[in-house]
Design brief:
It contains 1 helix and 18 strands. It has 301 residues and is an all-beta fold.
Length: 301
């Protein structure tokens, strides 16, 4: 069961609980410097549990009449699956917006999966080194001045099996766009999403299936070339892409209508310009109709 907590209030539900970050938007120096995105570690995540109330101090946390939600998280996540999450914030009289979010595993506070923007114009990623946590946050364009609410879309590639619970921390700012940090409402949530049990992943009735297309690559890690295979349950118009950790598509492997059944394509470790891609971690992303799958892969030489 996914547990949501709103700083002293408990609830259960489909919305992912995150501790709401105080976003520094529309304020003069030093706060105004952060309107293109708040500093990392400002979304109530451990070990500091830090919020930027020094700037946005007019009202207590979660004291406004607005609403902050994280949509798209399941009650339990399936390892290595791709989820599209939506951060939503509204407050009747506010007119500028921002957020910050991270996902970690409680056992060691390292990243739980991979977060990346759907549209980099509005959402950016601040990457931690190696397995350290990443932060997604709004860009300057993503503050949506004069809008009556705001939404941002983020893709979350769930971590591999055995990771355990993924804990999300989120913070949002409903600013009044008056050019100062006064009069802004800050909201906060936190959510813990457990990993789906192995028995559920192994079920054959479709409930909790790891991957709707059985997307695979062999060998993985790949020393150079590798075979990518998948199975279509029905004829579909699909797109299979190679994506880097920043969410940038570096190669379209296939974009076409294909019949039902098994399919295989050769991945040569090259980008769109036929240049050799750097060694490292990438993601195969397959989209067909309303379904999508993702697979973490490693390209070598």
């Amino acid at each position: 069961m996914m547990l949501m907590r709103v700083f002293g209030r408990s609830a259960t539900g489909r919305h992912a609980a995150l501790w709401m970050l105080i976003l520094l938007v529309g304020a003069p120096a030093p706060c105004s410097a952060f309107s293109p995105g708040p500093p990392d570690g400002s979304c109530g995540d451990p070990p500091d549990y830090h919020f930027c109330t020094a700037c946005h101090a007019s009202f207590p946390l979660n004291s406004g009449d607005g609403d902050l939600d994280l949509l798209g998280l399941p009650p339990e996540y399936t390892p290595d699956s791709l989820y599209t999450l939506t951060v939503y914030i509204e407050d009747l009289y506010q007119r500028r917006w921002g957020f910050e979010m991270t996902a970690i595993r409680p056992m060691d506070w390292l990243e739980a999966g991979t977060l990346r923007p759907v549209d980099p114009l509005y959402v950016q990623v601040s990457e931690g080194p190696g397995p350290e946590r990443d932060y997604v946050k709004q860009t300057l364009e993503g503050t949506f001045p004069d809008a009556t609410s705001a939404t941002w879309e983020i893709e979350w590639l769930a971590p591999p099996a055995g990771t355990g619970t993924a804990h999300f921390y989120l913070a949002g700012n409903a600013a009044n766009y008056n050019g100062t940090p006064s009069g802004d409402f800050i909201y906060g949530l936190d959510v813990a999403v457990p990993e789906r049990a192995v028995s559920a992943l192994a079920s054959r009735d479709g409930e909790g299936a790891r991957d709707p297309f059985d997307l695979r690559m062999a060998p993985n890690p790949a020393p150079g070339a590798a075979d990518v295979t998948f199975v279509l349950p029905e004829p579909s118009l699909l797109r299979l892409s190679l994506v880097d950790p920043q969410g940038r598509e570096v190669r379209t492997i296939v974009s076409a209508g294909l019949p039902a059944g098994p399919h295989s394509f050769r991945l040569l470790g090259r980008g769109e310009a036929d240049d050799l891609l750097p060694q490292g971690v990438y993601f195969l992303v397959l989209r067909a109709k309303d379904d999508r799958s993702a697979r973490r892969i490693v390209l070598g030489r």
